[in-house]
Amino acid sequence: MVSGAAADIDPLAEGVLSYLINSYQVxxxxxxxxxxxxxxxRAAARLGVDVPGESLSNVIVTRLPFAVPDHPVIESxxxxxxxxxxxxxxxxxxxxAVIKLRQGVGRLIRSKKDSGLIVILDNRVVTKPYGKSFLxxxxxxxxKIVT
Length: 147
Description:
By secondary structure, the protein is mainly alpha-helical. It is 39% helix and 5% strand. A two-stranded parallel sheet has the order 1-2. Helix 2 crosses helix 3.
């Protein structure tokens, strides 16, 4: 059931994830909840999970999906960018988080028949200069900013 970036999930986590997805698809009035940085099993609910049709009609993003900078793998990537004279935040962290956001939003629209609402609760998309990158990465649809 799980593929792509989520394929390296251990069997126990995969079993739990499969159970949660199945319960969500047949339950109707449930809300899947995903947290994570794109590393490990928590990313599976955002990456590689397909819930087509009316089972999924809203994607609510509570925080922009930036990777944890002190994770050893991320830390080494940021250090390499720094050593090459780059800016780790603008050269790695923002582009990677934008990709993760697009992947998460991509779970909503899987076919021409799908529709839904994308809600981003993290005000950094409108208060920080890099927020424009996130908004530009969303599908070309009407955007309403509520303050």
